[in-house]
Each structure stands twice: as C-alpha cells, then as structure tokens.
Amino acid sequence: MFEKTFHATHPAMMAGASNGDLRDRYLVTGLFRAGELVLNYSHGERFIIGGAVPAGQSLTLPPHSEPDSAAGQPLLSRREMGVVNIGGGAGSITVDGERFEMAPRDALYIPMGSRDVRFEGDSARYYLLSVPAHRACALRKLSLSDITPMRRGSLETGNDRSIFQLILPHTCASASLCMGMTILEPGSVWNTMPPHVHERRSEIYLYFDLGEDDRVFHYMGHPDQLRHMVMGNEEVVISPPWSVHMGCGTRAYSFIWAMAGENLDYNDMDVKDICQLC
Ligand SMILES: O=C(O)C(=O)C[C@H](O)C(=O)CO
Ligand SMILES: [Zn+2]
C-alpha cells in the first residue's frame, strides 16, 4: 500500500553520499497525481506521507493491508492525520459522515479511530501526514484566518515570512503530530534562516506555490557539514532529528512543515548561529 519506504539513517551515512543517494534517502516525489491517493512510509517517527488529488472523483483512505492482525482495519485505527488542501480550488473531506468544506490552504486534523475518510473536489490537492497516536483528540478544521501567524525575518535579509502554527497544543490538540504552514513574502527566498536542529523530533517539509521552473536549494546534514538538494514544486524532504533543514528558493514560495517525536514543544530547538555553518 506504500509507494516507497524511507529508512531511518545514521548521520555518518552523509559522508560519501552522492547527490543521488541523498535524493533516494530523503526526497519524496510524485505525491500529487490526478485521480490517485498516494502513500509513502518513513521509519523516522513512522510518518505516512501522502497526497490525494480527487480530480472530480471520490478518494478514500485505504485500510491496512498488513500484518494479518491489522489487515482490513482503518488506516487511522492507531494513527492521527493532518491534511492541507494545497490546490487552487475548494473541495471537501468527509470523516465518518461529517463533511468539511476545504478552501485552498484549509487544514483538517483527523483523530485516531476515524474509520471512513473521503476526499473530493475538482481542483483540490490534499497533502496528508499521519503518525502513530496513543489517544483520540477532537476532529477539527483549521483555516489560516483563524490563526495569528508568527512574523519572522525581514525583506532586507531575504527571509520575511509568516509561520502559521496549525496543529500545536495552543491551536489544535493532537497526540504527537505538529504541523504548520510558512508563507514567504514576495522578494523573500530563505526559510528557517538562521537554521536549527531538534534532536527530539524529525521534520518533513513540503515546498509548494513554486512555478514549474523554480527550485528550492534545500540544505540538510550536520551544521558544519551541510549538503544540499535541489527541489521542485510539491516535493517533500525528510529531515532526520540530527539534521538542519532550511532552504533558499529562486522566488517566494510556501511550505508545510510537520514534526513528531518526543514532544509537542515547537520551541524545543537548538538554533544555530550562521557563523557555525559550513
Ligand atoms: O520558516 C521557518 O522558520 C519555519 O517555518 C521553521 C519550521 O517551522 C520548523 O522547522 C519548525 O521546527
Ligand atoms: Zn525544524
């Protein structure tokens, strides 16, 4: 049921890794295909990373296919999920009969125990992230207009951006998923500058709102041994807990960040000084 399984990696595996090795280990592509629901699996925090593009049809979360003890059970029987509509048009998500209209950039938190989850919409594109959960929190829709963003950076330093915390304890209760969206102002290109590491959580970035010919130069690895990966629109990068994660685009863009691990504390991060990087 998973298109690809991404394995957990050791920091020592960065030495000698080719650009192709990095892309194979950390880059998730092909998530958004018309008429399909695509799921990938990462052993880092056991994230499921997916995309659903209904293109006029109705797409449903599949049940577990294995092991035998779980086969046929709902995918979210022991998991929670965050969804964002990154498409240009509205759609709807129906969870066990409760229907939510999903305007572009709306998010939905779907709790553990949800059984029937359907995605619809002609031009909606849903980004899906799921992690194991130990409790069921409330099903909840979140719109950017309900959230006061954190403003960070400046146009002068090319990193003027708004950080919307969609799923965090003060906005939406979850068992272990943290999720948000960061939107860069026109003329700004750097995200997460200065960068940070958080040993107790892994993080996943999805870059979007880029043109077809635009790219983000995403940096990862140990702060004093940075590597980069060239990423296009609607591509995802997995950041292990030992890795920085930051990027510079050829124009302004947006990205969705999602984390899980030891805690739900957004501020549990070790911010690096730019002079520490090389
Ligand atoms: O632009 C930023 O800065 C971010 O959005 C950083 C992410 O929220 C993050 O990496 C949280 O750990
Ligand atoms: Zn981070």
What class do helices, strands and sheet pairing give? mainly beta
Distance between the termini: 40 Å
Unreliable residue runs: none
Bin the strand percentage.
35-45%
Cofactor: Zn(2+)
Protein name: 4-deoxy-L-threo-5-hexosulose-uronate ketol-isomerase
InterPro entries: KduI, KduI/IolB_isomerase, KduI_N, RmlC-like_jellyroll, RmlC_Cupin_sf
GO molecular function: 4-deoxy-L-threo-5-hexosulose-uronate ketol-isomerase activity; zinc ion binding
Structure, described:
The chain is an all-beta fold. The chain has a single domain, classed as Jelly Rolls (Sandwich). It is 3% helix and 42% strand. The chain contains one helix and 24 strands. The strands form five sheets. Strands 1-3-4-11-6-9-12 form a seven-stranded mixed β-sheet, with helices on one face. Strands 2-21-18-23-15-14-13 form a seven-stranded antiparallel β-sheet. The chain has a four-stranded antiparallel β-sheet with strand order 5-10-7-8, with no helix packed on it. A hairpin with a 4-residue loop joins β3 (36-42) and β4. The longest helix is centred in the N-terminal third of the chain and has 8 residues, at 19-26. The chain starts with a strand and ends in a 7-residue tail after the last strand. The structure holds the ligand O=C(O)C(=O)C[C@H](O)C(=O)CO and zinc ion. Zinc ion is lined by residues 196, 198, 203, 245, 269. Keywords: Isomerase, Metal-binding, Plasmid, Zinc.
